[in-house]
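**User:** You know discrete backbone vocabularies at least as well as I do. Would you mind producing a protein record, from residues through to fold? Write it directly below this note and I will take it from there.

**Assistant:**
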Amino acid sequence: VTTVSSIIYAMKSIHLSRVTDVNFVEELRNEIAILKTLDHPHIVRAMETYEHRNQIFIVMELCSGGDLYSRDPYTEEEAARITSSILSAIGYMHSKGFTHRDLKYENILFMSNDPQSEIKLIDFGMCLFVRFG
């Protein structure tokens, strides 16, 4: 929680000493670098990142409304709104030269429990920079 605005954020904490997969650390650093470059209303925003001793902390927007599975089934109107948001985020990523490579229900979160809540794409560990065209 910031004391100025009272906004609540999520914090991902990774103990590097507990990580046995070298690829995971590489994917995590890749995810952090990519999140710092992306600025779109339907992509989770990383506010700050910190490294201290053998830990990495990522402070990001809190998406407290669950993933796409948590509200299934959807009306046609809801599905159209959600699909439009996802395609907008993917189009933005492609315009910046990135491809997500791990789009699935679990990586699309609602910002809140509100029925009209916006969605956010998360988990950019497998994301790649690609030259399109």
